[in-house]
Design brief:
By secondary structure, this protein is an alpha/beta fold. It has helices at about 5-15, 50-60, 70-75, 145-155, 185-200, 210, 215-235, 245-260, 260-280, and strands spanning about 35-40, 65-70, 80, 85-95, 115-120, 125, 155-160, 165, 170-175. The protein is built from nine helices and nine strands. The strands form three sheets. The protein has a four-stranded mixed β-sheet. Strands 7-9-8 form a three-stranded mixed β-sheet, with helices on one face. Helix 7 (about 215-235) crosses helix 8.
Length: about 325
Amino acid sequence: MGDPYTRITDSILRQIETAGPGAWVCPWHRTHGSLPRNALTGRTYRGINVLSLWCGGRAGGLNDARWATYRQWAELGAQVRKGERGTGILYYRDLTNAVDPAIPSPGDSERRFIARSSTVFNAGQVDGAPALPETLTPPIDPTPVFDRFVAATGAVIQLGDAAAYLPARDAIRMPTRERFHTAEGYCATLAHELVHWTGAPHRLARELTTRFRTRAYAAEELVAELGAAFILAGLDLASTPHPNHAAYIAGWLPLLHADPRALVTAAALASHAADHLTEQASCSSASAPYLCATTTKAFDVSPPVPEGSSSAPRTSS
């Protein structure tokens, strides 16, 4: 069966590779938003668990964002239907009793964590699930909501020929909106660059060379792609592939096959980037009305961020 990292990563890789070369579709590219959340606690899942649950939902044709363990559904008065297959998630026990191993702190080198797996079921797999509360209707045009969110982050956006984060200027270069076929494509591209923007030394200082060595560039692009998907899902907007998606996959897919923990690490860093942008936006009703309701961190925690993966500036396109 392998360790928990391998099992979760393998299930996600199977979905990525289903379409075959030249027609890649990743589980985080979605026609609608919403982050998976725990049905009992109401908290959103983070990191690799978001990807795992998106995969499980896609494989089972499940559209409900609510997930819970067998016992948690029972607490809610619901019953998992016989024969339903659950989806695996990871959680981490901090053997040093730290509050949140996803947040680095002094003395991290002495902390010890152990990964554990659990199985959860979607609301579409149970009888008697509580009725969904009324929610805000996602906007038909995503750009006004997204624009307010971007403005609230304080990122400097400059017009240019190709999308990229420019470290020397600490600015994001973006083509005009008319250059994009869809509003969703524009939002996905800018969200991708915003994640790169979070990696500057005076923000998250994300440096991946120590952890990923020669594949640091591919790892950073994976972090940016995942982070963009998390941001757009939090805003309840669709997520579409970055224009260079096929080229990026060619770079990071071999990494995921060779290193089962790479996807877990990248997803954790992507969650950190999305958290940072959300905090920058201050979750004001004027900037991110859809994100504010879903930013509570999940009961399961992201893995500890490895040494040397703090966040370097980089140019992407």
